[in-house]
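A quick word before the example. In earlier lectures we treated sequence and structure as two separate objects. From today on, think of them as two lines of the same record. Here is Fructose-1,6-bisphosphatase written that way.
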Amino acid sequence: MTATSDKSYQTDRNLALELVRVTEAAAIGASHWTGRGLKNEADGAAVEAMRHAFDTVAIDGTVVIGEGEMDEAPMLYIGEKVGAGGPAMDIAVDPLEGTVLCAKNLPNALTVVALAERGKFLHAPDIYMDKIAVGGGLPDDVVDLDAPVGENLRNLARARGVDIADLTLCTLDRERHERLIAHTREAGARVTLISDGDVAGVIAACMEGSGVDIFVGSGGAPEGVLAAAALRCIGGHMQARLLFEDEAQVQRAREMAEGDPRRRLSLVDLASGDVLFSATGVTTGALLRGVSRPGGTRAVTHSIVMRSKSGTVRFIEGHHNFATKTWGRS
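And the structure line, produced from the sequence above:
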């Protein structure tokens, strides 16, 4: 390894740990509002904490997946510059994935950040996206976004050497997915429904032992890019397509990224190059435990951090003392 590549490798390793501090700060900020029924306050606390934490990260960052357009979000909007200076990086963030989950103290609320080299994330507006994802170690064409769900389940079962009855499909519990759910059950597979938080759902479909074999359905485009970033690190297959409600959304997508905005997107169309990903649990779910506050003077966090370059996945437990915590240099 050359001196230059060694320095780059060390920088990536340092950034991976810095990202954990960012998602930890956001999760602790949001956790104050867990179960209080105030989703906007929870989201605002996560956004503010995440933004301040980014002030200490050694990057020249541009938010490409954020809280919305500049006139829609006061902080962490698409195009906002963050970081203390350093390598040029694109940032995808969801300061609180599952605001309703946090407000109702339901499972799977997360704080999520991903970094990539400039131009390596799909620049997508905050609209819906159709998605399908399965784990790694399978043929590239094992599933097809445009195929009927029964066909995808049969192909997946064949590739894994199991019966369809052994498969579980995860999707958001939405009226728009009623036919998908019915056809899945008709094919013989089980269905796991989640109320929110499809980043965790997609990741679960690609992690051994999660109890989920495939994720299918439509959810937010920003969440799709974040999930793709995670899959670049842990391995998996994903296809997606932006869903538009009007021509104005099509034009906005055309302005933000090259290519046909209605095309089918592969995993590397969504996230490519060297990717770093971090998530911290706010409420306990299938992927991570939530924030606990023993005694009210401390917080315990559980995070996952991944690097596509090494393929390393780390689970990190953090213990935070509010009496001595200095968020700016934590």
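Notice the following. Residues 1-11 have pLDDT under 50 and may be disordered. We will return to this example when we discuss secondary structure assignment.
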